[in-house]
Amino acid sequence: MENVILEGGRGRFIGYLLALTMLIIFLLVFPQIASSYGIVLVTEVFIYAIFALSLNLLLGYAGLPSLGHSAFFGVSGYTIAILVTKGGMTNFWLCLLAALLVAAMLGFVFGFLAIRTFGIFFLMLTFALAQFVWAVIWSWRSLTQGDDGLPGIIRSGLVFPISIQSDINFYYFVLFFLALSMFLLYRICHSPFGYVLQGIRESETRMQVLGYHTWKYKYVSFILAGVFGGLAGSLKAYQDGFVSPLYANVFTSGMALLMCLTGGTRVFIGPAIGAVVIWLIRGIVSSYTENWSLVLGVIFIFVVMFARHGIGGYLIQLDRMINRARTKS
Amino acid sequence: MTPEKCILLLSMGVNGIALGMILFLLAAGFELMFGVMRIINMAHGSYFMVGAYVGIFVGKLSGIFGLGVLAGAVSVGVLGLIMERFFLRYLQDHLQQVFLTFGVVFILSDLTRMIWGGDPHGISTPALFAGSVEILGKPFPVYRLILIPVGLLVALGLWIFQAKTRLGAIVRAGVDDREMTGVIGINIKLLSTLVFGGGALLAGFGGMMASPIIAVVPGLDWEILTLGLVVVVVGGLGSLRGALVGSILIGLADTFGKFLFPEISIVLIFFILAVVLILKPSGMFGGG
Amino acid sequence: MHALKVEGLCKSFGGLQAILNISLNLRTGERLGIIGPNGAGKTTLFNLFTGLLRPDAGRIYMFDKDVTYTPIYRRIQAGLGRTFQVMNLLSNLTVIDNVVLGIQALGPSRFGMFRPLGAYGELVDEAKKLMVQWGLWESRNMLVRDLSYGQQRCLELIVSLASKPRLLLLDEPTCGMAPTEIASITNIIKNLDKDIAIILIAHDMDLVFGLDLDRITVLHYGQVVATGSQQEIKINPKVREIYLGTEDVNSAPTD
């Protein structure tokens, strides 16, 4: 892991800080120079970055491979959709709060069932639970209109003093949430709680024998990951203007998983990088063919066979080389 | 309880057990792969679906149902062999293997859609088993009745193989100690490949056998995989007996569920899953 | 008060009776060695004490509290510590990560979610003290998986001390180590706080006798065969038979 408790090595962060600043400036300026298609695309990248980062709390940090993350995405998205289109609620913050609460409750219930298992069993179970959510969404037509989806989600006119109706404003809005999520998740991952999760990933037995009630940690992380996943789903609902069962489809879980794997699960920023890469590839591919699923599967196999630590793995190596070079000079 | 209700229950029971037999074919192959190689093959549902598609294609083309069954089973068996030999073998981490099989699902899902389109495919029941037979004054479809002994025969065959034959003992030994098995001269690599191919073959066989009574559409892969995983978790991972009992249970649950709550029949199945998980997380016959 | 009291402990796996009717007492600060041939059930016994396994019958008391069915983390809170024969370290984390996690386990900060771990000065200071004391400070930023086997074994022992246990279970702490490394581990164990009760599983007779333990218990096929002082065990004919009979030539106790 790239984290070192002591002496993070302030010096070597100067270079990274510079790069980071440039990136932030670029992201802030981007909507002014890009096409509307580009703005929408990048906004979606932000949303999936949040989604992938939330999954990585489970996958990369706690070592819990969840194939069911789409359940949170879908449940929150539909909560927003139902509240806005059927309930007529226009207050963005109230809707969001409701959606996050629903996601938390889902995590509460599912986590209780799923955390009883671990490793491969956990994977199967989260998959089955997510399929359950998908099936409910798909068949409960009176509530969700099933396969047709729920269109007509309008972004409420006023959020603070700014309207998020326009794509450009919504872009900045989502960017704000991305920054907030990254900040919160970063703090959580590098806190005692986060390190305990990593310890559980390495050896749950050892952590138990050190005196940690590991079950509690896994359960809480599951709920937390679910809430952030729900945040992503909520934002996507506002972004698209409609929801469909695809939100809760295992395909969405698979994409998030691939984003984590491609970007690297062992680096905090990995999943975000993976989100950029995968979503951009999707953007390119879907202009040529509609067989995105096929391409996704091929990338999956490629990454698993040849690049198991993802881009993040290479970044860590790069970082070590830089560090070595610096300490020599 | 009127006689009509009795017969209705009986007929639903038969349907449920028939479905259970199909699920068993799926689950048995899955258990085989897991038992020997500790691999969770997420593509197992896809194998099932591909077996159905290929089998239907060949069956319709030749007019012989049996040929379709053979084609379905063999084609998927070969697919499994290829996947193990050229991909899974090179991954040691079980999680990585699962991820790989997960990726395969996406590929197969699109491929089948590209080749056969999005409309439901099906095939009529083979002439030999078409029609119905009268039991207690109510017609029972012969095909579904036939599925029951077919499934039980496969179960028996697998049990004999595992418990009684030398090869079966080797397969079991492969579970317990891979190194020792290698040391006493058994080619564990070949064994793994064959077992994986065999499990895939079972899935393809199951898929084709199911095609007269199940709609073969895109999405079947995930659907049947879900049922299969529930069966395996409920029955207990690693137990053939568990797979059989679990399949019958889930088959019945699905059939009765669709009757009782036509909109959300899946609720009953997950209720069973939840109960089992709370009471005995390792499944009914699972070992710890 | 007894640090550990065990009565009639039984455990079987399927048809195999791994532990049969074992009872023992350990006073505070007492040092007990458990020896016996492979498969005698020593590690199984430890797993029962720790809580990784549930006994089929019998009772376990730790510091006069019944912990027979208590979850693992509660036993640790009651004062238990343990090392493993097959090492259970957090290999992809650094040395200091491992130690800090060990120290923090029973402390109030262990659920903290917002401040970075490095900001908890007291934890880091305590880790530093422990690591400097046992010579691990220089390698604090190395990943555990990059350490040598001997260093990992040493770390395994240190980490188990981090929670300040009053009852320490050491499962083959020198397994597979070179003689010089064994000497340093022996040193560490000898210099442990006199208040800590210790049970040591070992195969290496030199280690067992070199540590000057208060008592030694011999296990065979899951049962206690003999128990007594070092001298008594050395001359016990049953014990010699067990060891000479299993061709464990190097381990046979000699005068």
Topology, element by element:
The complex is a heterotrimer of chains A (329), B (288) and C (255).
Chain A: H1 13-33, H2 36-62, H3 70-86, H4 92-114, H5 119-139, H6 141-144, E1 150-151, H7 167-189, H8 192-202, H9 204-210, H10 214-240, E2 242-243, H11 250-263, H12 270-285, H13 292-306, H14 310-328
Antiparallel strand pairs in A: 1-2
Helix pairs in contact in A: 2-7, 2-10, 2-11, 2-12, 3-4, 3-5, 3-10, 4-10, 8-9, 8-10, 11-12, 11-13, 11-14
Chain B: H1 3-37, H2 44-62, H3 65-86, H4 94-116, E1 132-135, E2 138-141, H5 142-164, H6 166-176, H7 178-183, H8 188-210, H9 220-235, H10 240-260, H11 266-279
Antiparallel strand pairs in B: 1-2
Helix pairs in contact in B: 1-5, 1-8, 1-9, 1-10, 2-3, 2-4, 2-8, 2-9, 3-8, 5-6, 9-10, 9-11, 10-11
Chain C: E1 2-13, E2 16-27, E3 31-35, H1 42-50, E4 57-62, E5 65-66, H2 72-77, E6 80-82, H3 95-104, H4 121-133, H5 149-161, E7 167-171, H6 179-190, E8 197-201, H7 205-210, E9 215-220, E10 223-228, H8 230-235, H9 237-245
Parallel strand pairs in C: 3-8, 3-9, 6-7, 7-8
Antiparallel strand pairs in C: 1-2, 1-4, 4-5, 9-10
Helix pairs in contact in C: 3-4, 3-5
Write up this protein.
The complex is a heterotrimer of chains A (329), B (288) and C (255). Chain A is 74% helix and 1% strand. Chain A is an all-alpha fold. Chain A has one domain: ABC transporter involved in vitamin B12 uptake, BtuC (Orthogonal Bundle). In chain A, strands 1-2 form a two-stranded antiparallel ribbon. In chain A, α3 (70-86) runs parallel beside α5 (119-139) and α11 (250-263) runs parallel beside α14 (310-328). The longest helix of chain A has 27 residues, at 36-62. Chain A is globular and about 60 Å long. Chain B is globular, with a radius of gyration of 19 Å. Chain B has 288 residues and is mainly alpha-helical. The mean pLDDT of chain B is 84. Chain C has a domain at 2-87 and 166-180 and 193-251: Rossmann fold, CATH 3.40.50. Chain C has helices at residues 42-50, 72-77, 95-104, 121-133, 149-161, 179-190, 205-210, 230-235, 237-245, and strands at residues 2-13, 16-27, 31-35, 57-62, 65-66, 80-82, 167-171, 197-201, 215-220, 223-228. In chain C, α6 links the parallel β7 (167-171) and β8. The two termini of chain C are 34 Å apart. The model of chain C has no long low-confidence stretch (mean pLDDT 83). Classes of the chains: A mainly alpha (329), B mainly alpha (288), C alpha/beta (255).
